[in-house]
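Quick illustration, no need to memorize.
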Amino acid sequence: MRLEIVRTLAELNECACGAIELPVSKATASHHFKVLRQAGVIAQHDIGTRRFSSLRRDELEQRFPGLLESVLRAAKA
């Protein structure tokens, strides 16, 4: 599920959490977003009642050069 979230955010740059359709309950999806946020993979901000997520590409690239692209490339295979 987390890989699917990262893959979707890589394509869209930013989107509302509920816009990513996952085959799990809302609570489970929220848990996956929380784990990614706490790990520093995504950033989140609220606009009204919606929470938007985006990949922290620049920070990940600085800390782990090439890792994100490698993971995304492997996920497509």
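The longest helix spans residues 26-38.
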